[in-house]
Amino acid sequence: MDDFDSDPPGLCDRCLKELIGGRGEFYEIDIHATVDSSPPILDSPATLDPDEMDAEWGRVIKQLESTPQVDAENQVHCRRRILLCAPCFQIWIENPAGGE
Question: In 1-30, which positions are buried (b, 16+ CB within 10 angstroms) versus exposed (e)?
């Protein structure tokens, strides 16, 4: 192996072609998704008295405590990295959501 060869960074996540770094033949795509940060719309905030509000928050907290940490974090934000060879990137970039 000479100095210009490098270990492959992985496989194309679409077609599984082996990707070789340094040749400009693949794309690294970083996806960072976050939940809508707008304040919640409350249907009828005036209908709950403080005790009912406390009980509701208690139910939410109990539900959150039983949710695995990774699942809870993914409900707020997640990051993904995908590798695509150049031909697969051209197909993906034209329609990243994959709809028809």
Answer: eeeeeeeeeeebbeeebebeeeeeebbeee
**86 in a structural domain:** yes
How many angstroms separate the CA atoms of 4 and 27, rounded?
19
Residue 89 predicted with pLDDT over 50: yes
Q: Tell whether 77 is covered by a domain.
A: yes
Question: pTM value?
Answer: 0.61
Number of domains in the chain: 1
Report the pLDDT value the prediction gives residue 36, as an integer from 0 to 100: 84
Task: Tell me which residue range forms the domain holding 73.
Answer: 10-32+50-94
